[in-house]
Amino acid sequence: MTDLAAPPTSTSQASSVHPLDRLTVAETQAAVEIVRADERFGSRARFASIDLHLPEKALVLAYTAGDAIVRAADVVVLDRSDGSTHEIVAVVSDGTVAQWNRIEGVQPSITVNEFVESETAMKSDPDFQAAMAKRGITDMSLVTIDPWSAGNYGDPIESSHRIVRGLVFVRGTAGGNQYARPIDGMLVVFDLNAMKIVRIEDERVLPVPDEPAESAEWSRHLMPSDRERSDIKPLDIVQLDGPSFEVNGDRLSWQKWDMRIGWSSREGLVINTLSYTDGDQVRPVLYRASLAEMTVPYGDPSATQARKNAFDAGEYGMGMLANSLTLGCDCLGEIHYLDAHFCDAEGTVVEIPQAICIHEEDFGISWKHSDFRTDQTEVRRLRRLVVSFICTVGNYEYGVYWYFYQDGRVESEIKLTGILSTGALDTGETTNYGTKLGDHLYGPNHQHFFCMRLDMTVDGLANSVVEVDTVQAPPDENPYGNAFRGQTTVLATEQQAQRRIDPMAARYWKVISNEATNKMGTPTGYKLIAGENCLPFATEESSIRARAGYMWNHLWVTPYAADERWPAGAYPNQSVGGEGLPAWTAADRDVENTDLVVWYTMGHNHLPSLEDWPVMPVACIGFTLKPSGFFDHSPVMDLPPSSTCH
After folding, report:
1. CB under 8 Å, gap of 24 or more: what pairs does 397-404 form?
2. From 51, 184, 300, 312, the catalytic residue
3. Cα separation of 597 and 589, whole Å?
4. What is the pTM of this model?
5. Alpha-carbon distance 628 to 408, whole Å?
6. Where are the alpha helices (DSSP H) in 567-640?
7. Catalytic residue among 179, 276, 316, 396
8. Is 538 helix (H, G, I), strand (E, B) or coil?
9. What's the CATH code, domain 245-627?
10. CATH 2.70.98.20 occupies which residues in the chain?
């Protein structure tokens, strides 16, 4: 059996492959065959996910080009015969199984195959067809069913069966907007392992909204032909000499930044080993960064809407739902794409061409000054490198963008768009828990919470986190009443490091090095600056409070642990809760002067408006990592003047 924690031996694979390089299609297929060949793989077993088995951090940091490495895959298998889950490490380097662990009482994420199969099975069920006929709907080709993760609300079936709750819609015409016509007042409880309906919860028959096409449709061929604007001139992004970045496999270099692009079926895009070259010194900033979880709690108590609480990463897998991007539309300019792939439930490798977009953008001025005495002006323009992907999770689209600036800043931004998951109202009925979009149509209130996992390495592994609030100076230091200063607090333990934003104090958090100092002798660091944020409105007693405990703090800090990757736990699907960050941090471990992970949670509150229909204009939420004493002076004083203003 291969020891994955041991240094590679002479029999390990020696090549130009880096330990963090994404699995190739061939490696993923090899992992499938290794697992299938094992006698523990049952006749009703299915693949939930296959991802790169992350090597030990120490081995990665010690790696030099040409070193022998072991390539392995983490495989999650669901056995439908008994509902058990199996975590497997398949070593694709030598065709062996390094680990095989059977886990009871958990549910892996819902697979893409189950999306399709469950809808087909529900629509074919006579009881479902009868429920539709009661509403005057007989053409099943127009009916669509979104399989929502079931959560856990104390119903015994939620802990004993693998289920989803089907929300039903009907298109007005083939290809029409299904969300314009929700079948509210009923939902379908469906067993994914048995592939059959458990029960239909039919509360009441409501009118099917019937909005006119000009206000309900988003597909171009169904929209009025005279709707499109005719006054938009072409905007061409031209780089005659090509872009300034270089891509070599999964390694990406741009200006003074260097990183490796990663991918997982759960997170999608991952940024690995981010560093900045400062003179002749390569300075690490981040070891690994990703969107580790996203939770969408709904705020409508109606029977159909109340249990809509999706974990889009842990229950569905953003990487498996990634879009294939189109040149000139999702991305604009001189673009380099990277493909991605995933393994479906049957073990078939599904390729996603052009899943990751890499390009650079002009971002206005970097700095400028004019001296009126000498009539001298200097101005420099700023560029940023953009690395992004977009996924579609049912009705919503999420764009995950990472921006890297010449001045050392790093920003992460989530772009939210797509279509509201709607509900229906009776004639004359109103609601306090959503916004009416038509006579019988409304968009329910909801929130989005994104938890970013930031494995920090600011000038090395020995880091600490401090909180900085701006406070008024005390009276004895403030004779003119104008003085204020930064008040710094070291967050020394996990409990102390559970923090929330405070815009009234201009609060930020700073990750500092315990080994490196700047020219003034103070620790080098990066500060985390919050953008839009909020807290959940769910009560302490709610199911989602237990299942997504990470949402109740904006900042968490933990000591690095290889198996602590998922803020709501490894298996949030149908979990009762308590896992992840709340469980880990209960130990109140030290997080000062150590290898640490910063978890930043940001919340977007959505009380829908008429302007969100039929497709929502993009809403953005994000944060900034900004150098703070990391450099001895401005890192963009070496930018040359622009050669052209066109």
Report:
1. 397/323, 398/294, 398/312, 398/318, 399/618, 400/268, 400/269, 400/291, 400/318, 401/622, 402/269, 402/271, 402/289, 404/254, 404/257, 404/259
2. 312
3. 12
4. 0.96
5. 10
6. 581-585
7. 396
8. coil
9. 2.70.98.20
10. 245-627
| Residue 155 among the catalytic residues | no
Residue 387 one-letter amino acid: V
355 and 389 in contact (C-beta within 8 Å)? Answer: yes
Q: Which amino acid is at 87?
A: E
pLDDT in tens, 358-396: 999 999 999 999 999 999 999 999 999 999 999 999 999
Q: What topology is assigned to 13-103 in CATH?
A: Nuclear Transport Factor 2; Chain: A, (3.10.450)
Beta partners for residue 131, in sequence order: none
Q: What angle do CA 520, 462, 506 make, to 5 degrees?
A: 60
431, 192 Cβ separation under 8 angstroms? no
Query: Do 262 and 250 form a contact (C-beta atoms < 8 A)?
Result: yes
Predicted pLDDT at 7? 58
Residues 501, 166: Cα–Cα separation, whole Å: 37
pLDDT at 10: 42
- Distance between CA atoms of 23 and 30, rounded to whole angstroms? 10
Reading phi first (left if > 0) and then psi (alpha if -120 to 50, else beta), residue 577 is in left
Please state the separation of Cα 266 from the chain's center in Å.
Answer: 8
Q: Which pair of structure tokens corresponds to residue 129?
A: 């067809």
CATH code at 112-222: 3.10.450.40
Active site residue 396: yes
Nearest to 509 by CA among 468, 470, 550, 471: 468
Q: Give start-end residues of each CATH 3.10.450.40 domain in the chain.
A: 13-103, 112-222
